[in-house]
């Protein structure tokens, strides 16, 4: 597909300069911007918004605008097992899925599992503190890299036969935070243990690093969900979609360490 056929929607279009595609202003909180932004769009790759607690209303704005603009197909990035997950993130995602189904527009749901980077982004702090902390216990996390999930979205958008499908996407392998800490230790030559903390203690630690209390508690609760199996999946639907194995945790660790100053 030529770049001239692609449209990117951005709240601040200047931040998307240099992509080589048409960039249009679109603000999920301002419905009047969405109709013009979606004009002439046939397929919408709908990446879920980032403001937890506001997303369902924002997503409904997008869906209504897509209906009015005549969008023919929406691909939405949801959450692994959004219809049954214990994670607090699931409610807004599943609510969006229901709104999409009610819209009458053909849809495909990509239920993304955890990004390995959600944990490897913590490596600099772990190296500084001498330990990786969390509340995930011995829960196994079927993580995959951000590029893995991006490749899946591209494969669906450029493929055929995906309308009406829901995909549960996760990494081929899984790891515990103990195993992640051991891999960081192996690659750095340092001893970086994993310290498992009760939810409230982990949330307090995150808040002490500058995170808002609500977000700190949410992140800690997601770890607890991981300890209960919420982030584990053995379906291999992600690797089947992208036609290759997903990125191993060790590779993402290496890439993270390489990026450090």
TrEMBL record:
CDD domains: TMR_SDR_a. Residues 17-220 form the NmrA-like domain. It holds the Pfam family NmrA. SUPFAM superfamilies: NAD(P)-binding Rossmann-fold domains. It comes from the Bacteria. InterPro entries: NAD(P)-bd_dom_sf (IPR036291), NmrA-like (IPR008030), NmrA-type_oxidoreductase (IPR052718). PANTHER family: NMRA-LIKE DOMAIN-CONTAINING PROTEIN, QUINONE OXIDOREDUCTASE 2. This is NADPH:quinone oxidoreductase 2. The lineage of its organism: Bacteria, Bacillati, Armatimonadota, Fimbriimonadia, Fimbriimonadales.
């Amino acid at each position: 597909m030529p770049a001239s056929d692609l449209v990117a929607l951005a709240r601040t279009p200047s931040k998307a300069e240099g992509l080589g595609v048409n960039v249009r202003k679109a603000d999920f909180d301002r419905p009047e911007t969405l109709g013009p932004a979606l004009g002439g769009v046939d397929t919408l790759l709908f990446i879920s918004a980032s403001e937890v607690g506001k997303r369902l209303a924002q997503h409904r704005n997008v869906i209504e605008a897509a209906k009015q603009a005549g969008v023919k197909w929406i691909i939405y990035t949801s959450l692994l097992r959004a219809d049954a997950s214990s994670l607090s993130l699931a409610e807004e995602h599943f609510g969006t899925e229901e709104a999409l189904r009610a819209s009458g527009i053909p849809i495909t749901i990509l239920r993304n599992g955890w990004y390995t980077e959600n944990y490897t982004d913590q490596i600099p702090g772990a190296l500084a503190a001498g330990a990786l902390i969390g509340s995930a216990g011995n829960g196994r996390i079927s993580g995959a890299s951000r590029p893995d999930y991006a490749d899946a979205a591209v494969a669906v958008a450029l493929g055929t036969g995906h309308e009406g499908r829901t995909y549960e996407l996760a990494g081929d392998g899984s790891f515990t935070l103990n195993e992640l800490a051991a891999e960081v230790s192996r690659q750095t030559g340092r001893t970086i243990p994993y310290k498992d903390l009760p939810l409230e203690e982990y949330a307090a630690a995150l808040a002490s690093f500058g995170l808002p209390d609500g977000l700190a508690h949410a992140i800690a609760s997601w770890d607890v969900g991981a300890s209960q199996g919420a982030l584990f999946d053995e379906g291999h639907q992600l690797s089947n979609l992208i036609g290759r194995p997903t990125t191993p945790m060790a590779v993402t660790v290496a890439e993270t360490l390489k990026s450090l100053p």
